[in-house]
Amino acid sequence: MTGPLYRLGGFVSRHAKWVVLGWLVFAVAIVMGANATGRPTSDDTTTPGSDSTRATDLLEAKLPKQANGTVPVVLETTSGKLTEGGNRTAVQKTVKSLRANPNVRDLIDPLSQDGSNALSKDKTTGFISLYLTVGQSDIDDEEAQSISDSADPARDAGLDVSEGGYLGSQLSEPSTRLSEIVGIGAAMIVLVFVFGTVMAMVMPIGTALLGVFSGLAVIGAIGAVLVVPSIAPTLAIMLGLGVGVDYSLFIVTRYRRLLEDGHPTQEAVARAIATSGGAVVFAGSTVILSLLCLYFGDIPQVRDLGYASAIAVAVVILAALTFLPAGLTMLGDRINSLRVRDVAAEDDTGDADHPSIWTRWSGAVGRHPLIGAAIGIAVLVTLALPVTEIELGAQDNGQMPTSTTIRQSYDTLTKGFGVGYNGGLLIAVDVRPPAHNDQTSLDQINRQKQQAEQQQQAQEQQAIEQATVQFEEAGLPPEEAQQQATEEVESQPLTPQQQKQQQKQEAKYKQGKAYYSSPESDPRLVKLQNQVSKAPGVDGVSPIDLNKEGTAASFTVIPDSAPSAERTRELVNNLRDDVIPKALKGTELAAYIGGTTAANIDLATKIGEELPLVIGIIVLLSFLLLTLAFRTMVVPALAALLNLLAVAAAYGVLVAIFQKGWGVEQIGLDHAIPLVSFVPLMMFAILFGLSTDYTVFLLTRVSEEYELEGDHRRAIIDGLGRALRVIVAAALIMVLVFSSFIISGNPTVKQFGVGLAVAVAVDAVVVCLILPGLMLLVGGRVWWLPGVLQRHMPRLGIEGEEYFKRREGEGP
User: Fold this and answer.
1) Which fold would CATH assign to domain 51-171?
2) Which of 205, 222, 203, 215 is nearest to 316 (CA)?
3) Residue 480 vs residues 472, 527, 572: alpha-carbon distances, Å
């Protein structure tokens, strides 16, 4: 790898201006291409083989109107009622406008009989339930905005309008601009302090920004043909800035050292790319492979996040290997201009009389390896303790910024109807054999009508007989008296009360006959709906919707708890495991629970099941790569175990802050929220890759010292002293970049920011304290490798110093 990278660095340095120009042209072109596609994003929460996915598949095939569930357009008035005057007119115009939107398949008008449950008790709040032609995984920004614009008649009339469900989520993406500015500013300050010059800071920042913008554009462009989750661009910014600055820091540090050693600019650039660039390729490839390993989880949303993030990292690596050396060539010696303090290029170890802080630290670790390792492990174990209580869930839209439409709809629905209306459960029923009418109830209602008619005839006959007696007493013959009595009784008009009673009975009969004559009265479906409505945690159920063939039915269940609440998860599990099986016992019907809330629960369950597999694959991959790179099985095993402990510590902090609510108010949230299901899995893939950066940087320095001195203990101490400044600076930059995203309004982004920042800080503790301490305790056996592997394993030099020794004839 060293030779090709050396030649690449030489080529770039000889054609620096053309390389920079090429990058700028590429960046502009890809940004224009991405903007032309609209950079579509969507969230595919389907989980293959899950109950919610089966519900969606069933409805798409047999009841397509219900396949995507409903999304609410929430209306609220501050004066009067929605059912009166101008407010009523505004609602009617909005319903008409939404019906005309091509993305709306159907809707329920809150002013209609079917929508009576969509009005609050005081009639000041209501919602229009939309059946969209596009689902959660397909809707894009343009379609979502088109639907929102169709509600303008209500806005123009002064009503407060907000959108919920996946429509609202698509319209509610808080800006991360402030986080980016804060993160970049913090990285600039750290780089100036580390390098001691302003100009040395320019290229790492410029490289990171170019790589991030280009990577985002590539992700935006592929969004036209592949699914890109809505959070993927934000995650790409976080990763791109972090690794972009870190990788550039490694290369610039080596470049300045080579300049001080007397190499000309072009040679220094080529050697920096061949050496530190090799570490960047190795570490960056580990990050990319770790992210791509998410494919094995068989979870579409996580897989999509994985490849999108991998693309961002790959573009940043490419920029670090080409754009950065071109810029360094053009800067030349001016990289040390605008000096703010004196700093050695790389080996800031001080001298015997005045050792640097890094030398003193490495010396302390060398003198007390057991104490240092024990303290570090104790800290990690303490931080990891809360991880035993980890629970995965969905994003809590009630914690989104109040300026977003999803939060406004959440609060309005909660106030007007109850928190459960923010995440209904869609029950999809496969009806086998097709639904039939309730003949028993139909016969009963017919008998009731016959009895009423017979009773009325009996009353008329009694009145005729009484009138006949009266006419006979008046002297009329019997036959004439009966005829006169009959005509008089039959011609007598009904009283208003009798007319009202008769009309009421007739309407009741017609309504009952219509209902019990329809397939919707299938006793199997009625029993299912009744049993579900009585389950603990259910606030209400909607009427049954049946397709024309009677082969599929659906209805919505409203929980009495929030979509992200543990009580809602318990309700779904209870319905699936107990209520529905009992209600359908003895029938051929099959019922599934779908909708966004159920899909998020299934996603969390699937991730919990697949997490050990993905962790195992990534750990094995990391072990094999480090073994191949450093020809030892002991150090990779130690690094793998310590990295697992570091990730557990990061998970523990996440659980303590977000799930338990320890200090959650300080990061801008109102209360504790569950960990979003894919956050821990994504964190693991990212962090196991990133931790390799620091491990590789430390071990390469230790290897160099061992070759020079041949003393294992001295090599670890001196290598640690040489590597510390760069490792600490790189970790500090990443911690600050990731921490800056805590100020984002998106709760999921906050979780990524906290988790990644803590994990990088913990990784720095592992590499700077625990790992070298354990290596010292193990002694020379730390480089153990079975003989058969020593003979057959290829030699892979990460930073390629041996390449230049052979090239210059300095050694074998």
Assistant:
1) Alpha-Beta Plaits (3.30.70)
2) 215
3) 9, 59, 75
174 within 8 A of 744, measured Cβ to Cβ = yes
CATH superfamily, region 2-37+174-349+374-400+601-804: Multidrug efflux transporter AcrB transmembrane domain (1.20.1640.10)
- For residue 594, give the 3-state DSSP assignment: strand
CB-based burial, 568-580: b 16+ in 10 Å, e otherwise? bbebbeebbeebb
Q: Could you give the CA distance from residue 257 to residue 267 in angstroms, rounded to a whole number?
A: 12
Phi, psi of 594, rounded to the nearest 5 degrees: -125, -160
392-393/675-676 β-pairing: parallel
Q: Tell me where in the chain the CATH 1.20.1640.10 domain(s) lie.
A: 2-37+174-349+374-400+601-804
Residues paired with 130 in a beta bridge: 71, 107
The alpha carbon of 364 is separated from its chain's Cα centroid by a whole number of angstroms, namely: 43
Residue range 460-514, pLDDT digits in tens? 788 778 878 887 777 788 788 788 878 777 777 767 777 777 777 776 666 555 5
Could you read off the pLDDT of 718-745 as tens digits, one per residue?
888 888 888 888 889 889 999 998 988 8
- Using left for φ > 0, alpha for ψ between -120 and 50, and beta otherwise, residue 116 falls in alpha
Residue 134 in contact with residue 160, Cβ under 8 Å? no
Other C-beta atoms lying within 10 Å of the C-beta of residue 161: 23
Three-point CA angle 319, 321, 323, nearest 5°: 50
* Angle formed by the axes of helices 16-37 and 300-331, nearest 10°: 150
The CATH code of the domain at 425-436+519-594 is 3.30.70.1320
CA angle 104, 108, 110 (to 5 degrees): 130
| Gap between the Cα atoms of 642 and 767, Å rounded | 9
The model carries a pTM of 0.80
Using only the alpha carbons of the chain, give its radius of gyration.
36
Per the listing, tokens 């961002």 go with: 312
71 DSSP β-pair partners: 130
